[in-house]
Amino acid sequence: xxxxxxxxxxxxxxxxxxxxxxxxxxxxxxxxxxxxxxxxxxxxxxxxxxxxxxxxxxxxxxxxxxxxxxxxxxxxxxxxxxxxxxxxxxxxxxxxxxxxxxxxxxxxxxxxxxxxxxxxxxxxxxxxxxxxxxxxxxxxxxxxxxxxxxxxxxxxxxxxxxxxxxxxxxxxxxxxxxxxxxxxxxxxxxxxxxxxxxxxxxxxxxxxxxxxxxxxxxxxxxxxxxxxxxxxxxxxxxxxxxxxxxxxxxxxxxxxxxxxxxxxxxxxxxxxxxxxxxxxxxxxxxxxxxxxxxxxxxxxxxxxxxxxxxxxxxxxxxxxxxxxxxxxxxxxxxxxxxxxxxxxxxxxxxxxxxxxxxxxxxxxxxxxxxxxxxxxxxxxxxxxxxxxxxxxxx
Length: 394
Ligand code: GDP
Hints:
- Its main location: membrane.
- It is found in: Cell membrane.
- Belongs to the GTP-binding SRP family.
- The protein has helices at about 10-20, 60-65, 105-130, 130-145, 150-160, 170-190, 210-225, 240-255, 265-270, 290-305, 320-330, 350-360, 380-390; strands spanning about 1-10, 25-35, 45-55, 200-205, 230-235, 255-260, 280, 310-315, 335-340, 360-365, 375.
- The protein is α/β, with parallel strands linked by helices and about 400 residues long.
- The strands form two sheets. The protein has an eight-stranded mixed β-sheet, sandwiched between helices. Strands 1-3-2 form a three-stranded antiparallel β-sheet, covered by helices on one side.
- α6 crosses α13 (about 380-390), α11 packs parallel to α12 and α12 crosses α13 (about 380-390).
- The radius of gyration is 27 Å and the shape is elongated.
- The structure holds guanosine-5'-diphosphate.
- Guanosine-5'-diphosphate binds near residues 207, 242, 245 and 344.
- Guanosine-5'-diphosphate binds near residues 211, 285, 343, 344 and 369.
């Protein structure tokens, strides 16, 4: 192990020097502010003392880099760059020969993928030399299901925006991160419940996520708090229980409900409800991994012409499955997400991943089986706290 001490102006300067001297695998062992005496012992200035270390073999990497032989980041599936032969070319993104446009789309896609891989690895290495509390919070974000690439991006944004990041303890860093996420949401994805001028709203999503229950909660809220005349339509006729469930809620709330089997019937049902200010439509919960069902759903939505369509997803679904489900819904005009069953999980990162990846705002969060109470319009701060993993706020 090689250990080096640096006295610098600030952490960015330290990071640059450490990377130059010790390479990208170096870790910071400690950092503290020190007073340096100025001229004749006067005008002392505050500086930063940083101690960093790396395994013995790492300087070779730095050496090679100086010789210009080592790529900045070596993709994990590549061979040592000093080996001759064709394999070595894999370290570099191939340039097409002038005037040759073969397979351009596939080629571009491949190059973009390679670049993304290199970038991801670079980001990962950069944040690995960060102080321990920051690394811990980065791991917590990932454990909370925030995708690794978003976690890296958040941490690096934090480092960029705060010069004194190394002086923060874990709790201070967590608070700043919560503020950053909250600000991001505030700027681009402000949570938005149903718009007051939306008259027809469709709810789509896989079976069992809580669509029907959520519709009942929204109906009650709009009826009781906003005094709107609400009507319900259900096309979820594959499950007898779903129809009965919605009818029961409609009875309790004393609002009309129509059951429809075809796209023509939905048009008629909407016509019948022309005295209603708000019509909430429950669609069939099917396996939307199957694109045939997505196509049926699209036909149904074309006939219903909703002002808004909400995709309802349960946070108890595995993060990777959620991404697939949402990708399958890409051909459907989704306006907003609703996440259900917050009370049944402790990982909330998917809220961040999906709203950011698909650039859709969040309409509601649901937190239990009770109609109408267990639903809320989440504030940016609430979402940020959930994402950062401050469980006391659930
Ligand atoms: P649908 O098939 O999507 O219409 O789902 P349902 O509305 O029938 O709900 C399926 C189950 O999830 C029911 O037992 C609901 O009570 C339950 N459920 C709905 N929302 C929530 C929630 O926010 N938290 C919990 N724990 N259960 C919920």
